[in-house]
Design brief:
Layout: H1 7-10, E1 26-32, E2 37-43, E3 52-57, E4 61-67, E5 73-79, H2 90-105, E6 109-116, H3 123-143, E7 147-151, H4 152-160, H5 167-176, H6 184-202
Parallel strand pairs: 3-6, 6-7
Antiparallel strand pairs: 1-2, 3-4, 4-5
Helix pairs in contact: 2-3, 4-6, 5-6
Length: 204
């Protein structure tokens, strides 16, 4: 949990409902990283008011970090693995509900950034990541929230100076900045959030 932890955000539930959908105006662009291409998928943001920024390290054990509209930062992890006697789709339903709860608690949610993984350890990992990405992008399109993928190497380089930094180095880097991530998933989400804050400040 970050130094400015919010009990309201940290207590988000993972209930099983599907979010309402509404039409949005879509915009697509491409950004290039130093060693890999990043596809930036987004919807147009029309609000000029202060808003929250959510960073996600997608996976069955998901790392998240959010900067609220007041500037405070909080972070954590959430597990979406289906139970022993549940169908495989139950994890996706919980994830969609979690996004609903997060958006309500961090309202107004201005944008979402996620770790964009191009290489996976195996077929199962690729399928799991693809499922989370599909549901995240669909949810963002329906909710009218801009979303962007950031290459893994970009995040690691920003946090540690090395694009291939190991998990322990990412955790250490976030602790050096005053945060207390419980695992590498939360550390990655915090690093991504700080990168996004820094990048946003650079274009203002």
């Amino acid at each position: 949990m970050g130094p400015h932890g919010s009990p309201r955000i940290s207590a988000i539930l993972t209930q099983l409902t599907d979010p309402p959908q509404k039409p949005v105006t879509r915009a697509r662009a491409h950004a290039r990283d130093g060693d890999s291409r990043s596809c930036v998928r987004s919807v147009r943001s029309v609000s000029g008011q202060a808003s929250s920024l959510l960073a996600l390290d997608l996976g069955s054990t998901l790392g998240w970090a959010v900067r609220l509209a007041d500037g405070s930062i909080t972070s954590g992890t959430a597990a979406f693995r289906p139970g022993r006697f549940e169908g495989g789709g139950m994890g996706w339903l919980r994830f969609r509900r979690w996004l609903d709860e997060m958006a309500a608690s961090a309202s107004p949610l201005g944008s979402v950034v996620f770790e964009e993984v191009r290489r996976h350890a195996g077929t199962t990992a690729a399928h799991v990541y693809g499922g989370f990405l599909a549901h995240l992008s669909a949810w963002c399109e329906g909710a009218g929230v801009p979303y962007q993928g950031v290459p893994v190497g970009t995040i690691k380089r920003f946090a540690t100076g090395k694009g291939n930094a190991p998990k322990d180095a990412m955790i250490a880097a976030m602790r050096a900045r005053g945060f207390t991530p419980r695992d590498d998933n939360e550390a990655d989400a915090l690093a991504l959030l700080l990168w996004a804050i820094d990048a946003r400040a650079g274009v203002q």
